[in-house]
Amino acid sequence: xxxxxxxxxxxxxxxDTHPLVEAGTLVVGLxxxxxxxxxxxxxxxxxxxxxxxxxxxxxxFEDWLPEDLVTVAxxxxxxxxxxxxxxxxxxxxxxxxxxxxxEINDSSVANAMALxxxxxxxxxxxxxxxxxxxxxxxxxxxELGHFRNRDHLRSLGRGIVLxxxxxxxxxxxxxxxxxxxxxxxxxxxxxxxxxxxxxxGLELVYTNYGHVDEAWRLFERWDERDxxxxxxxxxxxxxxxxxxxxxxxxxxxAEQGWPTAGRVTPLRW
Length: 269
Ligand SMILES: [Zn+2]
Description:
Elements: H1 19-51, H2 54-61, H3 78-90, E1 101-105, E2 112-115, E3 119-123, H4 124-129, H5 133-148, H6 151-170, H7 177-185, H8 191-209, H9 217-225, H10 230-237, H11 242-256
Parallel strand pairs: 1-3
Antiparallel strand pairs: 2-3
Helix pairs in contact: 1-6, 3-5, 5-8, 6-7, 8-11, 9-11
The structure holds zinc ion.
């Protein structure tokens, strides 16, 4: 018997699916893979950064100042006072590995941020808003809390990876990345990180003054004003809702038995 090879049916290699649908699936699939790689990368960089010893971090970022981000106001008379207050609060953080450096950013938008190496940036907008030393002390203590939990490194890790992704996908010059890192470092932390920083900050305020009176008075004012002013909106965009925070701080003070009434220290400027 002679074997006759059967011809394959026509169109065997042609799928029933519309080519556009297939192309779409491919694009979506590749995007998902790309996204997964980014997420894993962020995760790995975050872990790697946590493993960087604090001493290394301090040495690396000792003189670092994101000049593309902040307009330093070295002649602001409030700089020395704010630095002294940070130093005083930091003495209550017994084994702090940082020597904190305060800079004032000449911006009407109220904000405060913790940056690698122990750099604390407060804006003139924030200094204009605070009405007592106790109010300022809590905002600064909160930033010290971010250092203690090394939250500032986490956002830096996210910033590095996302900047690289932006550079790779858009083909932009990598030298511009500095700005993205700093910019992303300013984005908010998680609720849990914020709450932990608040707890540490309030403890510093209590240890320093023996009470927590006016520690969150600033947020009460902002809450009353309902964040209508632009300056307030910025701080609130990177921090939890003022009313949530007030509630948590009140509860914490009650739990710890920290007096909510005491002698309030006026600002010395
Ligand atoms: Zn914070």
